[in-house]
Amino acid sequence: MSKMPMKRLSLLLLLQLTCHFSGGSCGKVLVWPVEFSHWMNIKTILDELVTRGHEVTVLISSASTIPNSSKPSTMKFETFPVSLTKSDYENFIERLLEEWTYAAKDSFWSYLSTVKSLFWEFFDTALSMCKDAVSNNKLMTELQESRFDILIADAVGPCGELLAELLKIPFVYSHYTSPGHIIERNSGRLHFPPSYVPVMISELSDRMTFMERVKNMFYTLYFDLFFTTYNEKKWNQFYSEVLGKTTTLSETMGKAEMWLIRSYWDISFPRPLLPNVEFVGGLHCKPAKPLPKEMEEFVQSSGENGIVVFSLGSMVSNMSEDRAEVIASAFAQIPQKVLWRYDGKKPDNLGPNTRLYKWLPQNDLLGHPKTKAFITHGGTNGIYEAIYHGVPMVGLPLFAEQPDNINRVKAKGAAVRLDLETMSKTDFLNALKQVINNPSYKRNAMWLSTIQRDQPIKPLDRAVFWIEFVMRHKGAKYLRPAAHNLTWFQYHSLDVIGFLLACVAAAVFVITKCFLFCCRKFAETGMKRKRE
Amino acid sequence: MSKMPMKRLSLLLLLQLTCHFSGGSCGKVLVWPVEFSHWMNIKTILDELVTRGHEVTVLISSASTIPNSSKPSTMKFETFPVSLTKSDYENFIERLLEEWTYAAKDSFWSYLSTVKSLFWEFFDTALSMCKDAVSNNKLMTELQESRFDILIADAVGPCGELLAELLKIPFVYSHYTSPGHIIERNSGRLHFPPSYVPVMISELSDRMTFMERVKNMFYTLYFDLFFTTYNEKKWNQFYSEVLGKTTTLSETMGKAEMWLIRSYWDISFPRPLLPNVEFVGGLHCKPAKPLPKEMEEFVQSSGENGIVVFSLGSMVSNMSEDRAEVIASAFAQIPQKVLWRYDGKKPDNLGPNTRLYKWLPQNDLLGHPKTKAFITHGGTNGIYEAIYHGVPMVGLPLFAEQPDNINRVKAKGAAVRLDLETMSKTDFLNALKQVINNPSYKRNAMWLSTIQRDQPIKPLDRAVFWIEFVMRHKGAKYLRPAAHNLTWFQYHSLDVIGFLLACVAAAVFVITKCFLFCCRKFAETGMKRKRE
């Protein structure tokens, strides 16, 4: 028997014990993540998997922007080289988000067209990285030899499903949403009725006026018919080449064993779903930890009035000076103390009640009993933390799903929405006063918190359960809808409808012919009789 | 303070403790059950509610067939008088089931038409009982004064939702399925694609040939367009009268907070669902208890060959002599010991390896390690017990959902289906040998058992969680799809489609007019020039 250091041996024993106690089997997990806030969410699942004794390997490109501080030593990070440099990638993403933020002010069609081209650009870069990974023989051999039990991928960044196919292992998606639900449709072709399911990026609610329903129908048709066509062609061709068979990106994505959706019915409007879809939104939420001493003192100094927390998320820590001044001067007029995550020039109008921070322990602040309101860009992670702690919000959405998120919380009566670029000081002040002083906002936020917390089993446990289930049983095909086996015209029963219409047409034809034949016979007999 | 006997006081304290420990609030539960096997399933939920300290009152008619032995003293049974006698009701149900069993041999259309008239007859009787309950002032006053927190009803027997509306309390359904899914559609108007979701009573699977899809489309259209029209009219009128507003049965049923479906993805084919629908099939399943001594000895005497369990369910304990002889003589030829639930004349061909019983501890037998096969009529409760214990089946379906149930287990490779009336001794013998000796049946049955057992939380706990949730929060409206607020043409976006078509038509009209006008102008100019 080879020698093994005592420490390593006891660690292994501990891992096996954890596995045993968690009820699952210890497994090897490969991860194809998407970065930024997506990484933060999937990391919560990976941390839990590590705690339960599973071995986690995260595949990242050499251009990855994941900071080292966010790479736990309990996981293995396998880096593969790509042609793009880290700074190129960062600049690229920054430009994409800036354009998206800017496009939000455009007209309906121009906005959609910009979003479409941004998506294609993003997917083109993802495709180039995917090619770099798959064509890397050393990497692929290493992965093959590692014999992973499962691959976890973020559905918004394709390639994971291709790797899983190549490695012949089952895979599970983490996903939030996509414009027109085009990505999640791969879970089983489910089409949502446009009459009450608002298309993501439409910013509509589930209770629409007639004209809103017309708008939603436009969005539905647009995304169904025009959105992915061109870009998917490239992916389909690439996947077919690599897998050596004619296939598509959709078909490959459709093989996912389970879709873990980072949403729940607290902010999502009830809509149809499939059994292979599990809503685990808020899985990263947890009770607040104590604040750093200086911060706690500042918070406590707010007295009865409490505090306001302001952050535009992990990707935006800056804004134009003009906007910062408007916001700072509004803050100066409220009795609350304000904690503002801001990395720009200190505004001249900054009141003594406001403190700037380069980073905030957001969850700990939102869970603090003195917190009265949260000013947010509407990112899903932040929204869920506020919901978990029952904090009403003022939303200043910028891009992606943020406007929809804010609109949803607004529809549930727990937020006021403003436009960061155009709002006046008075608008901002009124919105703040409204969510702080009108008790309905707090009440509604507390109800969302109740929905989030009062579940039969915690979202994180559900997510981990399904990942372990797939590892235990090498899949969960029994949840896979048979819709996957049908072509699109079969799925919509177009062949059956065509056949039935043809039958009706044939029947009408035969009956008409018979009728005409009888009429003619009758007429002929009549003529004959007349002649006789 | 009034005197209270010590025993009663400590019981109350115990109940409060249980409530506290169960995490829920102690509540008062009113139940509007459907009898027979439906009662057995809902009773499992009620027993659990009682264990958790809730007060359960079951409303039953004076014609109720629920035997006293099945009425736990831990629940209150409130009986209200109805015009029908118990024996009339028993005879009525017996005739209904007999006609349904017989109709199953008829042709497609005649079968559907018989089922339709049987449903209407059943619903007419239910309506008469409902009228007797609602017009009973004493009963209604008593119920009003009892201040219940929730009503639990079986969706196949209407009236519960009306009572809940009258008592102004939230309600939850227990439900399995209905022909064409017409009842469960009330959970939120969800229409299933007929291309891969087989209509219940069609006996199809989720993988259909072209002609099967045509058949399924026929069923879908039939149930959508013709099935409930006449009968619902009576209910709609009655509900409108009682509630003093124009309403319908569907609208009132649509107010259910939650639908607890007595199925799961082990036998149900994956299909779309809504967030207010929870699949809790198999909630009554539990580990086997030891058998009575005599039975255990008989079972043990089977040695390596094991035993076969045969029961046609709680409603059928008899069959024609001819059929009994065929079955008995087949049993006599197998090496297994057979335990047969049978109340008829002892067959002449009965082998020494077969014993007849008026009643069988079915779950304990199915959970016995010696059990090799289960011969069943395909009732949902029995099927789930066999699945839970991983026992392959021979199905002899008679009526209602039984043929579909058997076909589903057959599609999953864990059953062989035969026709009780027409099968020969050889057919039966071959089927038995197949499920016992071909290991694939056992393997598939064990996989179904794994699916059933390996869930994040047990079905019974999920069912009780949602009932307690509704009591804690006086509803679960956040799970209610906004589809309920739309008319049928709004739901299907027919108004939007009409509007868009009208817009297109108007645009075409204007463009054509402009084009014609230009042409005319052009022609006139040409003519003018020619003239000049």
Automatic annotation (TrEMBL), chains A, B:
Stretch forming the signal peptide: 1-27
| Keywords in alphabetical order | Endoplasmic reticulum, Glycoprotein, Glycosyltransferase, Membrane, Signal, Transferase, Transmembrane, Transmembrane helix
Do the record's keywords include Repressor?
no
Q: What is its EC number?
A: 2.4.1.17
Q: Which SUPFAM superfamilies does this one have?
A: UDP-Glycosyltransferase/glycogen phosphorylase
Q: Which InterPro entries match?
A: UDP-glycosyltransferase, UDP_glucos_trans, UDP_glycos_trans_CS
What is this protein's name?
A: UDP-glucuronosyltransferase
Main location per UniProt? endoplasmic reticulum
State the taxonomy lineage: Eukaryota, Metazoa, Chordata, Craniata, Vertebrata
- Describe the reaction catalysed, as an equation: glucuronate acceptor + UDP-alpha-D-glucuronate = acceptor beta-D-glucuronoside + UDP + H(+)
